[in-house]
Specification:
This protein is α+β, with helices and mostly antiparallel strands. About 50% of the residues lie in helices and about 20% in strands. Strands 1-3-2 form a 3-stranded antiparallel β-sheet. It starts with a helix and ends with a strand.
Length: about 90
């Protein structure tokens, strides 16, 4: 892509990501990246633009539905607990 075309494409992509989160209300990083077929790292950079503008908020959610029933773990190595990054549209 040429310089001007690339800049226009990036602006369109950043705007489309904003619209996607607004439409969904809440979307996981992996879902956004998969929808637009771009790497998570690029998606995060584009979402950071909207976070700085105050339109979107980033949340980290721990999935603890599968915690050890005995609650005897000293580490998370044996559990299926992970953190998920979610982006939420702020009603502006």
């Amino acid at each position: 892509m040429q310089g001007d075309n690339l800049a226009s494409f990036i602006i369109m992509l950043v705007t489309s990501i904003r619209d996607y989160v607004q439409l969904k209300g809440r979307a996981a990083l992996q879902d956004i990246a998969r929808h637009f077929r771009i790497p998570n790292s690029a998606t995060v950079q584009m979402l950071d633009f909207w976070i700085k503008k105050g339109c979107i908020q980033q949340l980290t959610i721990e999935d603890s539905q599968t915690e050890c029933k005995l609650n005897q773990c000293k580490t998370c190595a044996g559990c299926n607990i992970y953190q998920q990054i979610v982006y939420v549209w702020l009603n502006k």
